[in-house]
């Protein structure tokens, strides 16, 4: 009688079971199998796919992907916090306008948006034209097909996922706390580090989770903006499944990615739960 | 020691403060009283440095601090909703300014303890803010603002969020704390009884202007303007026409109330040039109205030849208020309502009922004449 609500959760449990737990279980099993000569799967269990993933080549890709995810998260935070602050402190009309502007890109197709960045950064794009017209450059910069372009794409695409959780926290923020801090002798940066940041922690951590984890597995943006030389975890996996037809190795990479995400999620949860302790410094 | 001269402030083209000038002496409990939107909070924020006047200067001990940012002003503020840092415990909140000032730990601990003792909050040092009641938070906010011994403590309606019982106790404690420290307090409130109870002096504000500055007795018993008279306490208003100054005393005047009735009342400082025939009001506080059925009407003041205004009324209502009772009668061809406040025990003794014909009276010295033209604001 105590668990009357269990029945209501049944559809969700079935859904998650069929479309999350079962596929992940498949991937886990596949990661232990072997690729045959023609891309078929050979049913012998071993850990050799994981051993292969520890190769320096793949470890390098892991490291690069982690760094890019961390960089994207950091840049999104640096842009997202002041942006969220501006929106939260704006007048009502401005606030809805700014929020709309932040959300408008999501009304456009993802691929179109990423291609737009390609155009903007391109050899014939407005940035290069402006730089050449102003006489700063004679030859256009090659900005596309690089890690830089990928980073620009990631930040552009994931910025709202950082900004909105911070905005939600700041919207309920008691701004008289800033005046209280100033009144007690604190200046700009002290107020930021002792009052604003500790109290936006929840938003920063949710934002970081929402940016870091998808960026780590992102494959469309590196594919479209990174060119052939920029290999990241996401493309590597896609390639194993679609081009190399090595499903077992792709599955092993996917398992490693899932574990890495769970790990980072745990770290972020711990950070969010720690509450006040950081602010004491 | 704290002085404001000619302060003007507009927000979005709307004048919030118009040529406000006030001078406070050291160790004074000074209240700024007014209805919401009268500019009192803006004035306090200008004193704290959060807002800047469009015109005018703020002086502290003779030096202008108009352009000094909040963190550099030797004043501290207690906020309306306390504004305690929720991510710090009580001691960290109180020690916030000491940490910024790089005060060494032993000294810091000693001063935090001292500040908490000042507001009777010893033993709360390690408590989280959200475990405190409103009154306790108020005390912590007070300790935090007092720890640096500011030259002036600014209080922005600090008691308005508290329950009545705690509010009354905090009023007494704030007052005694201010006396003990000898510190200048600037206390903003919209609660007239709070201002009357606590202050050495009160500035009554309305529509961005200071209407009157004076002791609680001054503003309550000798209001300069109709607004001040009506904002502080209850008031009876009897309409009439000015009939000229009373013979021999320019401080009093006659008012013609129609039906051949003339009342004498004081002429306040700002009303001494009233033209004869001007529409005026005779104003008298309910507790100054006497009832003939209880005892013989007598001048309240000891001085002889004090004029007594008398009239008869039909009792229309009796409002029980606990210790006192308000009895109301209709007057002036049933158009004016006059209320008298009596001790309940006295009312019971007379056995008055609604519909009884009674005789009211009040001394000329207890009433005053105000031009109706400036009472539309009231």
Distance between the termini of chain A: 49 Å
Write the CATH architecture name of chain A.
Answer: Orthogonal Bundle
Count of folded domains of chain B: 2
Averaged pLDDT of chain A: 88
Mean pLDDT of chain B: 86
Q: What is the total domain count of chain A?
A: 1
- Looking at the overall shape, the CATH architecture of the largest domain in chain B is 3-Layer(aba) Sandwich
What spatial form of chain A do the alpha-carbon principal axes imply? globular
Total strand count of chain B, please? 20
What's the CATH topology label of the largest domain in chain B? Rossmann fold
Largest β-sheet summary of chain A: 2 strands, antiparallel
Order of helices and strands of chain B: EEEHEEEHHHHEHEHEEHHEEEEEEEEHEE
Low-confidence stretches of chain A: 275-281
- SS-based class of chain A: mainly alpha
| Structure class of chain B | alpha+beta
Shape descriptor of chain B reads: elongated
Extended strand count of chain A: 2
CATH class type of the largest domain in chain B: Alpha Beta
Tell me what you see in this structure.
The complex is a heterodimer of chains A (281) and B (378). Chain A has helices at 6-30, 48-53, 56-89, 92-103, 110-121, 126-133, 147-171, 176-183, 188-199, 201-217, 220-225, 233-242, 247-273, and strands at residues 34-35, 41-42. In chain A, β1 and β2 (41-42) form a beta hairpin. Chain A has 281 residues and is mostly helical. With 378 residues, chain B is of the alpha+beta class. Chain B folds into two domains: 2-230, Rossmann fold; 231-295 and 305-375, Beta Barrel (OB fold (Dihydrolipoamide Acetyltransferase, E2P)), CATH 2.40.50. Chain B has helices spanning 40-48, 90-94, 96-100, 105-118, 134-146, 164-181, 192-198, 216-221, 226-231, 344-350; strands at 2-11, 14-24, 29-33, 55-60, 63-64, 75-78, 152-156, 184-189, 201-206, 209-214, 236-246, 249-258, 261-266, 279-284, 290-291, 308-320, 324-331, 336-343, 357-363, 367-371. Chain B has a six-stranded mixed sheet with strand order 6-7-8-3-9-10, sandwiched between helices. In chain B, a hairpin with a 3-residue loop joins β16 and β17. Chains A and B meet through α8 and α9 of A and β6 and α3 of B.
């Amino acid at each position: 009688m105590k668990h009357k609500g269990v029945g209501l959760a049944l559809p969700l449990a079935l859904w998650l079971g069929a479309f999350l737990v079962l596929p992940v279980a498949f991937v886990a099993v596949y990661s232990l199998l072997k690729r045959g000569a023609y891309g078929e799967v050979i049913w012998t269990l071993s850990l050799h796919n994981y051993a292969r993933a520890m190769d320096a080549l793949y470890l390098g890709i892991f490291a690069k992907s982690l760094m890019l995810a961390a960089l994207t998260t950091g840049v999104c935070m640096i842009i997202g916090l002041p942006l969220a602050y501006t929106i939260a402190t704006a007048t009502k009309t401005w606030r809805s306008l700014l929020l709309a502007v932040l959300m408008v890109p999501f009304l456009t197709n993802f691929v179109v948006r990423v291609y737009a960045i390609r155009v903007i950064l391109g050899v014939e794009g407005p940035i290069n034209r402006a730089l050449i017209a102003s006489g700063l450059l004679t030859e256009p910069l090659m900005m596309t097909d690089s890690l830089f372009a990928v980073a620009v794409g990631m930040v552009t695409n994931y910025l709202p996922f950082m900004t909105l959780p911070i905005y939600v926290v700041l919207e309920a923020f008691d701004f008289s706390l800033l005046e209280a801090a100033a009144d007690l002798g604190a200046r700009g940066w002290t107020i930021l580090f002792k009052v604003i940041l500790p109290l936006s922690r929840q938003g920063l951590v949710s934002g970081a989770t929402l940016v870091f984890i998808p960026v780590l597995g992102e494959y469309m943006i590196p594919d479209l903006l990174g060119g052939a030389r920029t290999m990241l975890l996401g493309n590597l996996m896609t390639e194993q499944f679609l081009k190399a037809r090595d499903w077992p190795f792709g599955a092993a990479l996917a398992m490693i990615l899932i574990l890495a995400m769970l790990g980072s999620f745990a770290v972020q949860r711990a950070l969010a739960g720690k509450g006040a302790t950081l602010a004491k410094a | 020691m704290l002085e404001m001269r000619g302060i003007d402030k507009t927000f979005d083209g709307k004048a919030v403060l118009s040529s406000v000038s006030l001078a406070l002496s050291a160790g004074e409990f000074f209240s700024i009283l007014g209805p919401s939107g009268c500019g009192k909070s803006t004035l306090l924020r200008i004193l704290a440095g959060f807002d800047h006047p469009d015109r005018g200067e703020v002086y502290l001990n003779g030096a202008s601090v108009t352009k000094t940012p909040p963190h550099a002003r030797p004043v501290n503020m207690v906020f309306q909703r306390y504004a305690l840092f929720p991510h710090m415990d009580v001691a960290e909140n109180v020690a916030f300014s000491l940490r910024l000032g790089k005060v060494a730990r032993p000294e810091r601990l000693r001063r935090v303890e001292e500040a908490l003792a000042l507001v009777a909050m010893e033993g709360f040092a390690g408590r989280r803010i959200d475990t405190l009641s409103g009154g306790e938070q108020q005390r912590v906010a007070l300790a935090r603002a007092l720890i640096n011994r500011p030259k002036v403590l600014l209080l922005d309606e600090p008691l308005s969020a508290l329950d009545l019982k705690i509010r009354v106790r905090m009023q007494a404690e704030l007052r005694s704390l201010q006396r003990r420290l000898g510190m200048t307090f600037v206390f903003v409130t919209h609660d007239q009884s709070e201002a009357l109870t606590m202050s050495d002096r009160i500035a009554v504000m309305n529509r961005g202007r200071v209407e009157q500055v004076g002791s609680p007795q001054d503003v309550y018993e000798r209001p300069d303007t109709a607004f001040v008279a009506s904002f502080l306490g209850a008031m009876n208003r009897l309409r009439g026409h000015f009939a000229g100054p009373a013979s021999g005393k320019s401080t009093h005047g006659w008012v013609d109330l129609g039906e051949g009735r003339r009342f004498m009342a004081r002429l306040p400082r700002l009303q001494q040039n009233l033209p004869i025939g001007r529409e005026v009001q005779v104003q008298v506080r309910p507790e100054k109205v006497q009832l003939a059925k209880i005892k013989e009407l007598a001048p309240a003041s000891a001085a002889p030849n004090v004029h007594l205004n008398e009239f008869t009324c039909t009792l229309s209502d009796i409002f029980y208020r606990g210790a006192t009772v308000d009895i109301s009668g209709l007057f002036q061809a049933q158009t004016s309502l006059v209320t008298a406040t009596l001790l309940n025990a006295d009312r019971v003794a007379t056995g008055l009922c609604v519909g009884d014909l009674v005789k009211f009276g009040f001394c000329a010295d207890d009433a005053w004449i105000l031009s109706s033209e400036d009472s539309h604001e009231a």
